[in-house]
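Sorry, any thoughts here?
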Amino acid sequence: MHQEEITEYIPQRPPIVMISRLVEAGEKNIRTELDVAADNVFVENGKLMAPGLVENIAQTAAARVGFLAKRDNVPVPLGFIGAIQNLEVLELPPAGATLQTEIIITHELFNATVVKGSVSHEGRIQAQCDMKIFIAQKNKTRVTMKLKNLALPLIAFALSVSAANAQSSKDVFDPEVKLTWIGLDWSKTHVIGDAAAKADQIIDRNFVEVNQKIVNEYKNSTSLRLSAAAK
């Protein structure tokens, strides 16, 4: 499967597409491959950085949902990341590498799914994490236009405010409610292996980049729409 075809299953479009091929897809797992190009937006100094590895895992999870929807001849639903836990960045793969990514479903209840994702290169795990994903069901959930317009519909959010001011998952789909974006919880993240040599850099810069992704992607998608409209 070519990159042009993979976009049938995920909402991302170049240059943000982080899957080259769909290798296998089933009810409980999916495997993809990514050819890391030198000009990949997540490559710096010849290495695919941590945000790119996280994005690759997230898109692979989205591809499974899209594949099953296409198979069953139903519209591809939106998916939302509720949490990223136990993230480990073991190595930063080089440009030119072909990565193998696998998602395994560990728990599934109604529209909530817990998955375990891993990225490997030449038999060595580069990164792995657990993700909690919620699927927006059309007959149960109302999605606002603002969310529909995001270039990255897999929205990572952590609403860890006090109980008095806490926001529920219902608020996410209420256009009248202003959401509070606090960011991902990195408290259980471990940076080990070769990547540990740049642990401070990863923490100071890349963690911030991942937490800013929801903001930056919306700004970028808005600019693209305005540019297209001007033409």
User: Anything to note?
Assistant: The chain has a mean pLDDT of 75. The chain has six helices and nine strands. The first strand starts at residue 21 and ends at 25. The CA atoms of residues 116 and 130 lie 5 Å apart.
